[in-house]
Design goal:
With 286 residues, the chain is of the alpha+beta class. Helices cover 23% and strands 25% of the residues. It contains seven helices and 16 strands.
Length: 286
């Protein structure tokens, strides 16, 4: 990877969080080694998403949430920008500050760079492969938690719409087991925030029972560079083709995965079926 291009020192914050409009999250332009990538301003109601400018290198692909909604991840060997201009849309619409602009760079199926902006909280998380992770330029590291009983864990949203009761059985079982064994359970409503806060050590783990690249690419890159472990529901390394996103401090991952296994096997709620990755609005589909 070109260190000059992906060095975190190239990224600068806007002058003030006040520059971010309450009506639209505007992703600021980012300098590049050659050319310039400038996302368009986006609002949840506009129906328009960010696109690459004509000067963007043609060998780098692009995937935005609106273009890809309802479709699966198509693996590719090259580099691809993956953007969610407003992660945590329901929070945004209701005036809650827990929303983010999430931009990741994926090589093949693995994120190698991530930037997450929390415009209403005034924070920017960034990471690039081999460079570590930062928030506002300060290095961050996943927590040193070693017991789930002392861990703060966040979970993804519940599914809504057709088929939601079946899809939520696994989510409800996991949440119930976490309530019994973790220190506390939280639901923030933004996949980007879930992952960024594990990376920073604010929380100790997060579990989302699906995986949409525009929601998770940036956060996965940041969490890994901060020392967190990110895996699929079966414990295999997480990629953009995974069916779930489980991120945890190394000291609690084993206990977190044990909860997922118990929930999937039906030991939590008797006769329960794992319905897998139902394509419903929930978890990362916020």
């Amino acid at each position: 990877m070109t260190r000059g291009l992906f060095s975190p020192s190239r990224w600068r914050r806007p002058a003030s969080p006040a520059n971010w409009s309450g009506r639209a999250c505007r992703a600021p332009s980012r300098p590049r080694a050659t050319g310039t990538w400038r996302p368009r301003s986006t609002t949840p109601s506009s129906g328009r998403s960010a696109t690459t400018s004509a000067s963007a290198p043609p060998q780098v692909g692009f995937l935005g949430e609106e273009e890809a909604a309802g479709t699966g991840w198509e693996p590719g060997a090259g580099l691809r920008w993956v953007l969610d201009p407003v992660d945590g849309t329901v929070n945004f619409v209701h005036g809650l500050p827990l929303c983010a602009v999430s931009l990741g760079l994926v090589r093949g199926d693995v994120p190698v760079l991530g930037i997450i902006e929390l415009p209403f909280l005034g924070s920017r998380y960034a990471a690039a492969e081999g460079w570590g992770a930062t928030v506002d330029g300060r290095p961050i590291k996943a927590s040193g938690a070693v017991a789930l009983s002392a861990a703060l864990v966040s979970v993804g949203d519940f599914a809504v719409g057709d088929g939601a009761p079946e899809a939520n059985r696994l989510r409800l079982a996991i949440t119930g087991l976490l309530a019994e064994r973790a220190q506390r359970v939280r639901m923030f409503g933004s996949a980007a925030i879930d992952l960024a806060w594990v990376a920073e050590g604010r929380t100790d783990a997060c579990l989302m029972m699906n995986n949409r690249p525009w929601d998770t690419a940036a956060g996965v890159a940041i969490a890994r560079e901060a020392g967190a472990l990110v895996v699929d529901r079966d414990g295999t390394p997480h990629t953009m083709r995974s069916t779930a996103t489980v991120c945890a401090a190394p000291g609690v991952l084993t206990e977190v995965l044990q909860i997922v296994r118990e929930a999937r096997s039906g030991t939590a709620n008797g006769d329960m079926t794992d319905h897998g990755d139902a394509d419903l609005a929930g978890d990362a589909g916020r």
